[in-house]
Amino acid sequence: MPKIEVDVERCKGCLLCAHFCPKKIIGPSEKLNTKGYYPAMLKELDKCIGCATCARMCPDVAIEVYKEQN
């Protein structure tokens, strides 16, 4: 199952990742980071397809996408 990890301290909450996510499963966190931004977070882990569009669109390089190898 693919997963994404957001570096919450690097993320400025622009949500470009959410805009371009084909499954629309990324949204703002309910918690502020230390810089005062609501970082992006994956809202529905089980629906992530691991396409990595979010990581490619992130201007802050704050997202890593991982896929399990069989």
Give an overview in words.
The structure is a single chain. The chain has 70 residues and is an alpha+beta fold. The protein has one domain (3-66): 2-Layer Sandwich (Alpha-Beta Plaits). It has helices at 16-20, 53-57; strands at residues 3-6, 26-28, 40-42, 63-66. Strands 1-4 form a two-stranded antiparallel ribbon. Strands 2-3 form a two-stranded antiparallel ribbon. The model has no long low-confidence stretch (mean pLDDT 95).
The first-level CATH class is given as Alpha Beta
Count up the domains.
Answer: 1
Q: From the 3D structure, determine the CATH topology.
A: Alpha-Beta Plaits
Helix content: 10-25%
Low-confidence stretches: none
- Can you give the mean pLDDT? 95
Name the descriptors.
70 residues; alpha+beta; Alpha-Beta Plaits; two-stranded antiparallel ribbon; two-stranded antiparallel sheet; 2 helices; 4 strands; globular
SSE inventory with pairings:
Elements: E1 3-6, H1 16-20, E2 26-28, E3 40-42, H2 53-57, E4 63-66
Antiparallel strand pairs: 1-4, 2-3
Quickly describe the structure.
This protein has 70 residues and is of the alpha+beta class. It has helices at residues 16-20, 53-57; strands spanning 3-6, 26-28, 40-42, 63-66.
